[in-house]
Design a protein that fits this description.
The chain is an all-alpha fold. It has one domain. The protein is built from 15 helices and no strands. The protein has helices at 6-26, 28-36, 42-51, 59-66, 71-77, 87-106, 111-125, 134-140, 148-174, 178-186, 192-199, 203-215, 227-243, 246-251, 253-271. It is globular and about 55 Å long. The N and C termini lie close together (7 Å). This is SalK. Pfam families: HTH_67. InterPro entries: HTH_67 (IPR054058).
Length: 288
């Protein structure tokens, strides 16, 4: 691990903190915590929980920040979810559900292991650059958790949203719109059946996006990815890693590698509940 360059180390660390964050989407205890405050149905919990750090926002800021959703899908949830639960209630529910989920995955680990992991991940999260990173900034500003698992999850979430903000900026730079990005990825290594439904795009919108991708040189006439598309998207991933590297440079190679060791058994357990076709895009196997 110590021989990796900054982008390589940054990407490996993403594969270790992203699964910790993702329990809030996929663990039954997370779903139950949202339902307990009146957010019944997966998408009510998703949009309320993820948008809650922004306050009782309407749909447009979330459409912009979340990037890949059809606007009408976001508008169905926001602002109506705030009549069911306040942002403060949604924040408590998402943290409660995440901590309960992580407790199931970490009960065999010593308390000292969890404390050290939380301390180091929290320190990394405290080094995020918030300029231009709205979701990263609002998560970084939330109160510090009282217990190690709460601190661990919130730090992972801050780092995850910070990285996501940088990824969206890199995608915007390609000139592609959200449905075009999804349609292109589904011609490379993702499932249209899953992603189109999960992000709310119609068949007509999807087909039109593929036609635009052909016209712009991202797809061939028979809908295969072009070299231009592959090279440009590789540049997006590299830009995402560069934009997310600051916390790990600040933490230093030795302490970053120690954190990776501490997170490894936690992340491996968390990955067991993430669906293979999830939009998160984690590699099939976890780098060590």
């Amino acid at each position: 691990m110590a021989a990796l360059d900054d982008p390589g180390r940054t990407r490996v660390m993403w594969t270790h903190f992203e699964p910790v964050h993702a329990v809030t989407y996929f663990h039954p205890r997370a779903r139950a915590a949202y339902e307990a405050v009146g957010l019944r149905g997966y998408w009510r919990g998703y949009f309320a929980g993820r948008a809650a750090p922004l306050g009782a926002t309407d749909a447009p800021p979330v459409i912009a920040a979340f990037f890949s959703f059809a606007p009408r899908m976001v508008a169905r949830a926001l602002p109506s979810v705030w009549r069911l639960a306040t942002p403060q209630e949604a924040l408590r529910a998402r943290l409660t559900g995440a901590v309960q989920a992580l407790a199931e995955f970490t009960y065999e680990l010593p308390e000292a292991h969890l404390v050290e992991a939380a301390d180091l991940l929290e320190e990394a999260a405290g080094r995020v650059e918030i300029a231009g990173r709205v979701l990263g900034a609002v998560n970084a500003a939330l109160p510090r958790g009282e217990y190690p698992l709460a601190r661990l999850w919130q730090a992972a979430t801050t780092l995850r949203e910070h990285r996501g903000d940088g990824h969206v900026a890199a995608l915007v730079g390609t000139g592609l719109d959200p449905v075009e990005v999804l349609a292109w990825r589904c011609r490379v290594n993702q499932s249209r059946e899953f992603h189109q439904a999960a992000r709310g795009w119609t068949d007509e919108e999807w087909v039109a996006a593929e036609e635009r991708l052909v016209d712009r040189g991202w797809l061939t006439a028979d809908r295969g990815p072009t070299a231009h598309g592959i090279d440009t998207f590789r540049a997006v991933e590299e830009a995402t890693d560069r934009a997310a590297a600051g916390p790990w440079r600040a933490l230093g190679a030795e302490r970053t590698d120690r954190l990776r060791e501490l997170l490894d058994p936690i992340a491996r357990r968390c990955r067991t509940i993430i669906p293979r076709q999830s939009p998160i895009g984690l590699p099939a196997t976890q780098p060590s």
